[in-house]
Write a sequence for this structure.
């Protein structure tokens, strides 16, 4: 983990999926549902937390973009950059 | 705003498992305020507890979940045609004060995130203006058939075998 965004999102998601932060970071390309046992309720919780923390709106169709920790970080990063631009 | 008859027509549960008496206020996809009068003749009080009647925290949580289900259903185009069940997926709840017979619960639920078949909400329950429970819930709306398919099969047949004479 190098950037603040990576650290923050890893910390937040590790709490929700009940995993150690270092382990989750190691598995950052693992798929939430198929490999990490995240169900739709946890996915919803992750979505709500991200929206609240970063004050962004994530439409339902974007749920499919949040398949792993890495893709979630990339997605939020892009959203934040769009807001600045 | 909605009386008990309307509440029970909209909820998938039935007596003795309805923990909302009235809907006091409602804003589609945003917020609902419900009321539940707690009486000494509720079915669970003889057991919880024999020496002192206290409403089980899990049932206060159920009252919040049913309020959230009403918010979900009332926000739909045809609330009366809802045939889905609501199940709680995750919950973080704090029980701050006990609830006794004679208390009136004012249950407020606000949407944090609403999707087509699930919702994340935060809620709180007040008695006489004092908070007794705060909670956040994730709920999913699913078909009864889908739930039935998830039933675990038992080791033995649930249907009694015929006895031959």
């Amino acid at each position: 983990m190098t950037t603040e965004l990576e650290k923050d999102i890893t910390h937040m998601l590790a709490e929700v999926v009940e995993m150690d932060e270092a382990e989750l970071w190691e598995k950052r390309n693992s798929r939430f549902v198929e490999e990490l046992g995240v169900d739709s309720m946890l996915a919803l919780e992750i979505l709500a937390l991200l929206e609240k923390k970063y004050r962004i709106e994530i439409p339902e169709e974007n749920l499919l973009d949040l398949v792993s920790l890495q893709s979630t970080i990339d997605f939020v990063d892009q959203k934040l950059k769009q807001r600045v631009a | 705003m909605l009386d008990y008859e309307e509440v029970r027509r909209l909820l998938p549960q039935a007596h003795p498992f309805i923990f909302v008496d009235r809907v006091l206020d409602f804003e589609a996809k945003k917020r609902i305020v419900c009321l539940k009068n707690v009486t000494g003749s509720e079915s669970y009080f003889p057991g919880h507890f024999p020496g002192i009647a206290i409403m089980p925290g899990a049932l206060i949580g159920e009252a919040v979940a049913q309020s959230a289900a009403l918010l979900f259903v009332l926000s739909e185009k045809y609330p009366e045609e809802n045939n889905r069940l609501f199940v709680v997926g995750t919950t973080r709840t704090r029980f701050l004060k006990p609830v006794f017979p004679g208390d009136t619960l004012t249950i407020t639920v606000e949407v944090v995130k609403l999707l087509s078949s699930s919702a994340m909400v935060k809620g709180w329950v007040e008695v006489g203006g004092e908070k007794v429970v705060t909670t956040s819930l994730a709920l999913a709306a699913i078909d009864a058939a889908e739930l039935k398919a998830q039933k675990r099969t038992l080791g033995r047949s649930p249907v009694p075998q015929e006895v031959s004479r």
